[in-house]
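Hey, can you fold this one?
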Amino acid sequence: MIQALQLILALSFLVVIHELGHFTFARIFKVRVEKFYMFFNPKFSLFRAKKFDGKWHFAFCAPNTTEEDEWSKHPEATEWGIGWIPFGGYCAIAGMVDETHKADEVNKAPAQPWEFRAKNVWQRFCIIIGGILVNFVAALLIFGAVLFTWGSDTLPLKDYDRGLYFSQILQEEGFEQHDRIVSINSEEPTDLSEVVKWLILEGRRDVVVARGLDTMALTMSEDLGVRYLAIQNDFDRQEREKARADKSYQKGHYTLVTYFFPFVIDSIVPEHAAYYGGLMRGDSIVAVAGVETPCYVQVTEELKHHPCDSVTIAFFRDGQPMETRLFIGDQGKIGVTFTGLLAFATPEHTDYSWTDALPAGIRYGWDLLVMYVKQFRLVFTKEGAQSVGGFGAIGNMFPSVWNWFAFWHMTAFLSLILAFMNFLPIPALDGGYILFLVFEMLTGKQPSDKFLEYANQVGFWILIALLVFANGNDLFKYFIG
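Sure. Predicted structure:
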């Protein structure tokens, strides 16, 4: 419920500022905006407001304006409202062929100076790109505000001498546990996010690692990114199957690479397996059912292989090796929490002034956008298409408990995605209009309004198909897997 609320709130905010971008440029060039709505409002609206005759008029849960309505007699004023379908929104610009105006409606009378179609191509271009521009700028400003408010924590790889834990797919590429990554394509990654980005999204192949006192050169496979997606999809499928079988099951996350540190118990849950098995705070688990588990990831993974089973747990207490036998619960848990990375390393915390936070937010947002664009190419593979998600997948990206840092960080990220997706040259999206305007700039010929109407209809059904596919993926994964 909290995830759904965060999703609706974030998307509502982003759609409003997107449409405000169109609205602002339209008003700069003295183009009338007939309606500005958050959410869609077929037939009726939850709220309507319009200023005419020198005062504001309001209506609640009212049918939309008709030709006989008093509100329609004042087209120079914008009607503001809230629809009843809680996604999306729109800005109805006078004289523009879009989802709110058909070509025949626009061309009933000669073009008026306050209409979109009466403006020159550069002015129309600015009005169209205004929404994309606002979403992009808003994302950078939000990232800057997040850095100013919370600062940033980083743990440079070069300062972590325990090395890294590598999943099976990376071990197949030649990595060994405890390896330290020196460089990827001759560049030094500063943290784990850059390692994942460079190897999976950018497909960089040449890696130098420090192994003990030696350094070694590794060459990654060209299909590493696609193979990773296939493994991730299979892992997600298995987790969904377990969650369907047990509604209380807490789904895990596939770990590609992480910092290597041991599973040291921090606390014991009373009357659970570890409690009855005599485990204590500070014990370090090193093996489960005879399988060595020197890294915390290996402990959690191995425990999940023995649900409802009695296994031997090997651990160290005060430097002495010990063993106990535990009955593992149906979710592969023993009733403990473990100390995290901060027990073995101290991250570098950076506080930012406004003058520092803004450029840092701009750099961070731009790098994130570049990473997303590079990741987008994987969508056109079979594995990438299977990983495409709709509103459910986006909602799951928010935390299950309210967290303002996570909310605003995720909102800024979604703002970047919204800007990028709207820039795609698909009719009915801003990118489709931009494509036709660029054509007009280059040729001096303006596409006919009928052509724009038909193109928008095609684009609309393309978007519907994409929405059905993405949200169908969510439903398939949830119900079938």
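The mean pLDDT is 85. Let me know if you want another pass with a different chain boundary.
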